[in-house]
Amino acid sequence: MNFPKVLIQWYLQNKRDLPWRNDTNPYTIWLSEIMLQQTRVAQGLPYFLRFTESFPTVFDLANADEEDVLKLWQGLGYYSRARNLHKTAKQIAFELNGEFPKTYSALLHLKGIGEYTAGAIASFAYNENVPVVDGNVYRVLSRYFDVETDIASAGAKKEFTQLAVALLPKGQANLFNQAIMEFGALQCVPKNPDCGNCVFNGSCLALQKKKVTQLPVKSKKTKVSKRYFNYLVFSDEHNKTIISKRTQKGIWHNLYEFPLLETETAESDIAILELIQNQNFVKNQILEIQLCNSEGIVHKLSHQHLTIKFWQIKVAGTLDSGMDCESASKFPFPIVIYNFIEKEWL
């Protein structure tokens, strides 16, 4: 069976109508690829539409304030993508006069663009004969060709890339790369793929050997740490609160939050209450403390699970650097904090 030909035929009949597929503009292709890293299309599409409306060109994105970029990104997660997106836009706009590099090797010199994204832009925008290898591609190739190499191993990327290169039909990199990614997203899905209605059900080695559920092989598991966050939502006599930017490296860099009391282990509400009463976040006298959620909100990140509680704290007088709730809500927050703001204030 001619794998590339059958795959492309399947794609042309089954592909989703997505806005970044309507042209070969490297800006919108780049934007979509960065947004869809670690993100499903259904979740990423509304963000893509909002971004292209607010920043229709790379110059618009480059000239935007980082906080405006992060605010639009709010809820999409992996915020380093947004920060790198903004930095790369500046590099393209101000150093390259708004012109994206036109080759895979030149694209790799841009900040935040690795081999996969460079391959996607080079093949989708310029039809350069380079492969793309992401999770979908690993899955399709490992199943169809019965490749048992651990995709988390050191040599896996090279092996799968070489296989993808061998399959690339010359002059059709654009179609083939989009086809194999779409096939992995719609047909050869991670769990319970519909192999009975698959165009490759007569030639897929994993199906023949009853190994579909075993492939691809991935042995490494990310170690997940647990953290315990208590956010202190201060409110003064003028109903103003205080927020601050997270400037330290790590999660949510450059997003905003309420004053944070983090503990190494899960503490009782009484213990947290005592810690709050003995804290010195503000100089104002504390009048009342109320726990907003007795059950901690578990917010799962790729390598951390956060258990979050919000405490409403009324204080006497006027808070230094206090801000009204409406103004505060316009800043970019981690989505778990913004959901609290939306519920309590908006």
Please tell me about this protein's structure.
This protein is of the alpha+beta class. It folds into two domains: 212 residues, Hypothetical protein, domain 2 (Endonuclease III, domain 1), CATH 1.10.340; 120 residues, Nucleoside Triphosphate Pyrophosphohydrolase (Alpha-Beta Complex). It is 42% helix and 13% strand. The protein contains 15 helices and nine strands. Strands 1, 5, 6, 7 and 8 form a five-stranded mixed beta sheet that branches. Strands 2-9 form a two-stranded antiparallel ribbon. A two-stranded antiparallel sheet has the order 3-4. A hairpin with a 3-residue loop joins strand 7 and strand 8. It is elongated, with a radius of gyration of 24 Å.
Spell out the key features of this protein:
346 residues, alpha+beta, Endonuclease III, domain 1, Nucleoside Triphosphate Pyrophosphohydrolase, two-stranded antiparallel sheet, 15 helices, 9 strands
Structural class: alpha+beta
Q: Helical percent range? A: 40-55%
CATH superfamily of the largest domain: Hypothetical protein, domain 2
In the CATH hierarchy, the third-tier topology of the largest domain is known as Endonuclease III, domain 1
Number of helices: 15
CATH architecture of the largest domain: Orthogonal Bundle
**The level-1 CATH class of the largest domain:** Mainly Alpha
Q: Give me the Rg, rounded.
A: 24 Å
Alpha-carbon distance between the termini? 58 Å
